[in-house]
Amino acid sequence: MVKICCIGAGYVGGPTMAMIALKCPEIEVVVVDISVSRINAWNSDRLPIFEPGLDDVVKACRARNLFFSSDVEKHVADADIVFVSVNTPTKTRGLGAGKAADLTYWESAARMIADVSKSDKIVVEKSTVPVKTAEAIEKILTHNNKGIHFQILSNPEFLAEGTAMEDLMRPDRVLIGGRETPEGQKAVSALAAVYAHWVPQDRIITMNLWSAELSKLAANAFLAQRISSVNAMSALCETTGADVAEVAYAVGKDSRIGSRFLNSSVGFGGSCFQKDILNLVYICECNGLTEVAHYWKQVVHINDYQKSRFVNRVVSSMFNTVAGKKIAILGFAFKKDTGDTRETAAIDVCHGLLGDKAQLSIYDPQVTEDQIRRDLAMNKFDWDHPQHLVPSSPTASKQVNVVWDAYEATRNAHGICIMTEWDEFKGLDYGRIYENMVKPAFVFDGRNVVNVEEMRKIGFIVYSVGKPLDPWIKDLPAAAPSI
């Protein structure tokens, strides 16, 4: 029986291994992590991450052929295939700070694999890593090999949060990169055979190591670029009276372009887009490709501009000050159907409003108060380090109140900022909300969730990203310095 071990019980490792266990009942799958509390959560009825469908898969496999353990070394030593799914945060200091990937956790994992291994192993890069990382990992493993042979494969993940289980069940493609040697190709075939239990053969794509590593960065850069492109158009739509939804619909009907990732918003978030683009920028700079680096850096710059533009709309619309005013923040997760807040646009928008002395009342159906306060107090880039290694931050400001009901969040508020496109926010009784707000009552829709005309009929002054401007807002300044 093949034994698989995955180092890292996070958003990638947990769901991916659960799906492999479900589809390959003859394979023993163990997910290991040094965080005992995280492993305990995976072994409980309340999993550490929220993802539709994940609970059912874990419950079907756990204690059968899916196990979660903090005994990292034992299970790594026993495994035939070791997936490494540890954090690859952006460096906060030293060479490449603010752009380069910090491979501290990857290197530590590689050294541990070399130390405890007593048999040949296939080591699979599952984390998003810079191109040529495999080369560094190979050097660590081969210099500590004690006669043991390792094959390094790149198998990047392409999961979208909120649909991760569906993405795993029916992936667009599975990429496997390996060395173009007989041993490398044998390892590629071994991993392909695992996925072949449920993924059609034509969707399992094999390539060289460097192509696989770069494909993940390239895919995320292209997707983020589409969002920044439509958000750049949203600013132009507002100044010209065009509707970004209509423009995006027309553009998306072109079969060469397609309609996916053309929804305008307050900005993209999530664990990958910004981090991977900054990593790509750094790799380009290291290879002397200055113009290419500038090109990709602009995608991130437009995303930051979109968030600062949104904050500026809020402040300028409300008589140029939000000091002491209650602003309801509806949604804190970076997208609906996930509790993940990594790089969520809500953090920067909240910081912008807090900087102008607003009183925030925050509601999200899936994000805990503890997480919200931690995010608002955390230094940039610290989110991607394991929690026990992040220095404890001071408690978030007394200007922040976290509530568990949208109606409570909006009671006596001067304005509402919709930051996540939760379906629940489409069905709220906005007439009731309006009655309980300070007048004039403002809605700033960062996700194009509400029907603007209906909201104006109720009495709201509405700003919706990329939509024709409310007469109230029309002549107010749109631009703002970056957050």
UniProtKB/TrEMBL annotation:
NAD(+) binds at residues 8-13, 33, 38, 86-90, 127-128, 161, 272-275, 342. It comes from the Eukaryota. Belongs to the UDP-glucose/GDP-mannose dehydrogenase family. This is UDP-glucose 6-dehydrogenase. The active site is at C272. One of its GO terms (molecular function) is UDP-glucose 6-dehydrogenase activity. SUPFAM superfamilies: 6-phosphogluconate dehydrogenase C-terminal domain-like (SSF48179), NAD(P)-binding Rossmann-fold domains (SSF51735), UDP-glucose/GDP-mannose dehydrogenase C-terminal domain (SSF52413). It catalyses: UDP-alpha-D-glucose + 2 NAD(+) + H2O = UDP-alpha-D-glucuronate + 2 NADH + 3 H(+). Residues 328-452 form the UDP-glucose/GDP-mannose dehydrogenase C-terminal domain. Pathway: Nucleotide-sugar biosynthesis; UDP-alpha-D-glucuronate biosynthesis; UDP-alpha-D-glucuronate from UDP-alpha-D-glucose: step 1/1. GO terms for cellular component: nucleus. It is an enzyme of class 1 (oxidoreductase). Its EC number is 1.1.1.22. GO terms for biological process: glycosaminoglycan biosynthetic process; UDP-glucuronate biosynthetic process. Keywords: NAD, Oxidoreductase.
